[in-house]
TrEMBL record:
Signal peptide: none annotated. SUPFAM superfamilies: Bet v1-like, ISP domain. It comes from Solibacter usitatus (strain Ellin6076). Residues 17-122 form the Rieske domain. InterPro entries: Cholesterol_7-desaturase, Rieske_2Fe-2S, Rieske_2Fe-2S_sf, VanA_C_cat. GO terms for molecular function: 2 iron, 2 sulfur cluster binding; metal ion binding; oxidoreductase activity. This is Rieske (2Fe-2S) domain protein.
Length: 363
């Protein structure tokens, strides 16, 4: 039996890259309002296409800047028209003459945002030098754009921790997803090989080859003759290897390499919105079945899987705010416990020198 971590040991980790949205959601001159890590933000592009993120609470009287619009590259507040540049500095107050000094406190906080592979990443904690890199998909370049599917962002009514732990936990597949993945999935869970990154910002996991009940998952999902024929046509006959990767703040990717050398990647990025809600940004990549049926199946599968997970965490779990659930754990929960440990480690080292720590002092 694994040792549970204390219930009070978690709070929001700010020093991490979180997904803020998809690149295609932001086209100039749109301003996107989104609540992340308890802050309402205004995300926008300037005329050169660069991304910016500002605290949306106007420093004058608190109106929501994300409901304003861009004027000459500046965000204009919808209430009294103050304008802010991309550094958050107020550059214009229409109710006073231009020569009157703008109060130095007329500043909106800004956050670091980067754009990689169609994803907008935001860092809302203390800026470090050097900054860790946001998560990256190696399979991205191998796949034509139309085989990368982004689900519309979803706001789940659940705590961030429940959403992430449910995603990392493969032992729920034969139960919560029996209707989608089939009723005959093996319930015994193989021992996991987990390798934590040196900077403790992520880990990689896969079934241990020594596990007495290791199994190729494809045999369980496609167990009928017809299913196998369809699966072969879809390039999904035999799995060569599969593994997963988790990266702080809340990014998880499952990788499946098929015998033909093609790939599927199923990725979910979770970002706390407030104490009771989490954003889910789901995406998938495939390099097999490059026909239109493959496109339809990929979209259908991602949508169905995320709906089952959403309903599962919203309805089946107690979603206490800002806390890890205090629960009993078994060996099958090791990936979730590893997430808790690296998350808590970095919460305890926010503003500190967490990146300098060795991998031996984190438990
Ligand atoms: S509240 Fe924004 S300008 Fe007054
Ligand atoms: Fe699931």
């Amino acid at each position: 039996m694994m040792t549970p971590l204390s219930k009070s040991s978690a709070s929001t980790l700010k020093d991490a890259w979180y997904c803020a949205g998809w690149s295609h959601e932001l086209r100039y001159p749109r301003i996107l309002g989104r609540k992340l890590l308890n802050r309402q933000l205004a995300l926008f592009r300037d005329q050169q296409g660069r991304l910016h993120a500002l605290d949306a609470a106007c420093p004058h009287r608190g109106a929501d800047l994300s409901l304003g619009h861009l004027v000459e590259g500046h965000i204009q507040c919808p209430l009294h028209g103050w304008r802010f540049d991309d550094t958050g500095k107020c550059v214009c107050i229409p109710s006073q003459l231009p020569e009157v000094k703008i109060p130095p406190g007329a500043m909106a906080s800004t956050y670091r945002v980067v754009e990689r592979q169609g994803i907008i990443w935001i860092w809302m904690g203390a800026v470090r030098d050097p900054m860790p890199a946001p998560p990256h998909q190696d399979v991205w370049e191998a796949s034509p754009a139309r085989h990368r599917h982004f689900l519309p962002p979803q706001l789940w009514r659940c705590s961030f921790f429940n959403a992430v732990e449910n995603a990392i936990d493969n032992t729920h597949l034969p139960f919560l997803h029996a209707g989608l993945l089939g009723p005959n999935q093996q319930q015994l869970y193989p021992t996991q090989n987990l390798v934590v990154d040196e900077d403790l910002r992520g880990f990689r996991g896969e079934d241990s080859p020594e596990s007495p009940w290791g199994f190729p998952r494809s045999r369980q999902i496609f167990d009928g003759v017809l299913e196998r024929v369809v699966a072969a046509w879809m390039g999904m006959n035999e799995i060569r290897r599969e593994y997963y990767r988790f990266d702080l703040g809340g990014s998880l990717s499952f990788y499946v390499e098929w015998d033909s050398g093609t790939w599927d990647v199923l990725a979910g990025h979770w970002t706390p919105s407030d104490s009771f809600h989490s954003w889910y940004f789901g995406m998938s990549i495939r390099t097999r079945a490059t026909h239109w049926v493959g496109d339809i199946f990929q979209k259908w599968f991602g949508k169905k899987l995320s709906l089952q997970d959403k309903l599962g965490v919203e309805r089946l779990l107690s979603n206490e705010p800002d806390n890890l659930p205090s629960t009993v754990s078994v060996v099958g929960d090791e990936p979730a416990l590893t997430f808790r440990r690296i998350h808590n480690y970095h919460v305890n080292h926010q503003q500190g020198d967490g990146l300098a720590a060795s991998s031996t002092n984190w438990v």
